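If you are new to this repository, start here. Below is one unmodified record pulled from the training split, so you can see the exact layout before writing a loader.
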Amino acid sequence: MKKETLITLLVFLTLSGGLARQKVLAQACNLSIRGKVIHLENNQSIPGAYVWVEEVKTGAISDDNGNFIIKDLCPGTYTLKIQFLGHKEILEKITLENTSFSKTFRLEEESMDLEGVEIHGHQDAIQTTTAVQALYGVELLESRGESLGESLKRVAGVTTFSTGNSISKPVIHGLHSNRIMILNNGIRLEGQQWGAEHAPEIDPFLADEITVIKGAETVRFGPEAMGGVILVSPSELPTKKESKTDLYLLGGTNGRMGNVSITHTGGSDKIKGLGYRIQSSAKRGGTIKSPDYYQSNTGLSELNFSGTVGYSNKKVGTELYYSYFNSELGILRDAHTGNLTDLESIIENGRPFSQTDFTYEINNPKQKVTHHLAKLKSHYHINSNWKANLQYGFQLNNRQEFDRRRGELNTRPSLDLELFTNTLDLFVDHTHPNAFSGTWGLNVIHQANSNIPGTGVTPLIPNYDMINLGIYGMEKFSKGPLEVEGGIRYDFRNVQTARFIGGELESADLDYQNFTAFIGAYYQISNSLTVTSNLGSAWRPPNVNELFSQGLHHGAAAVEIGDQNLASEKSLKWVNSLEYSSNKSLVEFTAYLNSIGNYIYLNPTNETFVSLRGTFNVYEYLQANALFYGMDLSGSHEFTRQLSGYFKGSIIRARNTETDSFFPFIPSDRMDWGLAYEFGEEEKSHKFTLSNLLVARQKREPDFDLAPAPPAYALFNFAYLQQLEVGKNKLNLGFQVQNLFNTSYKEYMNRFRYFTDDIGRNILLKINYQF
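And here is the target side for that same chain:
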């Protein structure tokens, strides 16, 4: 009996030991190698990098953010190989013991020829730990022919602040105008962006990608980036002999609009690294029609051009860029009323009394705008880790606004502004094979704004000279799935103004200064789930119009009153994003909280101004502490290979914390969703899309407004896109119907909603030929 018991005990111990060893081995072989692959030169993520573990013959491909993970590895020493075309291979020995391994791998580019392909890799990357979304590829193709503001409405959390149907400004999380910075090929766009009806002077056709950064980016870009940044980026210049041309032909039924654009890109065979691009577009549209009537004097005309030439090799690079923007826009004639009774009547009626027919003619009131932008940028690689950069930009903006006046005065502008802007950026980037990288820089801006004599009207804003000096530094720590970034900036601004009122000279000399800082983090929880968090302070000194406006703003058909005692806005914004992606689904959720001290806003008063030129509503610039908060939600899902769907929505609240009331001109809640059916081969596909935009009534109105907020509305849209191969070339045919059911509606964020409905049905035909 004792012998049997002993044998049983030995068997049990043997089995237990074996199971224990198997359990230990099972636990030990759940280790992983996790990493992120980026460019050594500029920290840009590298998607599609090949990662291979020699010993176990397994590997991974880096995703769109450069991240990868190799799972189920046992303890031991492994050889990790990382490869990407045009970059030096990385071979690294990694020892796994009791914990997994994570690291950021920086690939160094090398100039090489491979079957006619030459890579230099000198394009800069904007890396940020705040919420970022971009328009590119098919989505950008479908937006062609729209203004920049209308195109950006395809991004969750971005809406527009418009004046009629031809003038729109992008709004990010409730902020717009001087709180949003737009970069045209890396140069901050400087026009008269303070006006609600001053649309960005930029041609969307020059963009290969349009990126929206939703955080406070004042450390990186300066005070005007308080609410976010919009990057309008052309494609890279070629570095070898090649030729590519993009031709767009577009037509629309509403306004009988015609739009043409052509872009040609080429490279030199004799001078390696030399490339160029030229682009031009023209647009013509007539009277816009609401579902039941034409809106008088709402035509537009545009003529634009841009050109770039650049050279780069492994050591240096330089680029020269020029763009010209020219537009003439009609202002809704019914917004300019003759007397107080007429103004009250048209607001009560909600639509024009006058009847008009279609015409391409543009009469007063109208605006003419021309904008010149020139850029010179150079960089020099001090060594493989340090790069010095110099960028100079020059801009000339001329804005003329014409009012309804009698006789020969009718041909003279009532507002004639000329703005000169010089910007200089000097900065160094450093990247290392270890976990740190950063940028240190100096930014100088000089502006001179003048009222051109001869208008016969007291200038709305005074002449002014402004100089802004900014010094900043940013550092980033990257290790595997984790990125932590921080920065600090100091700005000093001086503004000197002068103008004659009643024969007397009025002048002012104002100084503003402030420190801003931010800290943010990005973490990839798994291959499918990432989280970002960014906390940043920001500031914005009051603009000249907010300080000194004192009269009729013709383009806005309103009288605006400034306040010279306004203080600088100071804010603290916290943005958090969670992104889930799989083979068939993508969901991104962003929540934000933005506390703004001394928030400046244009508030409607219960007053009107009567003059020989008509009767106008009076607005005044006020200041209060504000709390903005909200969320954006967007996503897509592939139900089958042919059927997919998308959705995007946003909610924003903006409270005056001093009076516990609401601010005017804040977007109402909205959601856009749609279904797409696509069939055919990748290069010979057909895609049908049916979408629906739902916009709620803005119930959070200020204490006084000229008219109640308009009711909620729903719009249906239809789109068809066919992609064809024509020999070695590509042909894209698009057909779109906007406002499919010709619904009458008014958008709360349209300043002309008091006088008219928004645009009715519009049928668009789009042809794109790439050769």
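Two things worth knowing about this chain: The chain has two domains: 26-118, 132-770. Confidence is low (pLDDT under 50) at residues 1-27, 112-123.
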